[in-house]
Amino acid sequence: IAVRKVSKSSVSTGVESSDVIGSTGTLLLPVGKDRPGKVRVELKGKAEDFVATIVDDGVELPSGAEVLVVAEGEHGSLLVSKAEM
Fold first, then answer.
1. What CA–CA distances, in Å, run from 69 to 1, 45, 59?
2. What is the C-alpha to C-alpha distance for residues 8 and 80, in angstroms, rounded to an integer?
3. Which pLDDT tens digit goes with each residue over 52-74?
4. Which of 32, 38, 31, 29 is nearest to 9 (CA)?
5. Does 18 score more than 80 pLDDT?
6. How many CA atoms lie within 13 A of 5 on its CB side?
7. Rounded to an integer, what distance in angstroms lies between the CA atom of residue 57 and that of residue 46?
8. Do 69 and 78 form a contact (C-beta atoms < 8 A)?
9. Phi-psi region of 34 (alpha: psi -120 to 50; beta: other; left: phi over 0)
10. What is the pTM of this model?
11. Looking at the predicted structure, is the pLDDT value of residue 13 above 80?
12. Is residue 52 helix, strand or coil?
């Protein structure tokens, strides 16, 4: 239920999802296969929240994990991968 609510109002004004490709972000909600989460990305001096979908098969990441934005998904969501440390 929480993810559906997030997806309807996840993108705030000022920054497009395509602007953040290649950036890193922090998961606010965990993400896994067939389970979208929520990622916060800092860009242009603002923190923006987006629905996040993991691209790595079999990987689940907890809230607080650092992720790399690799592509734009459907409806303004972001495709993310575990950030290399």
1. 24, 17, 15
2. 19
3. 999 988 889 999 999 999 999 98
4. 38
5. no
6. 3
7. 31
8. yes
9. left
10. 0.78
11. no
12. strand
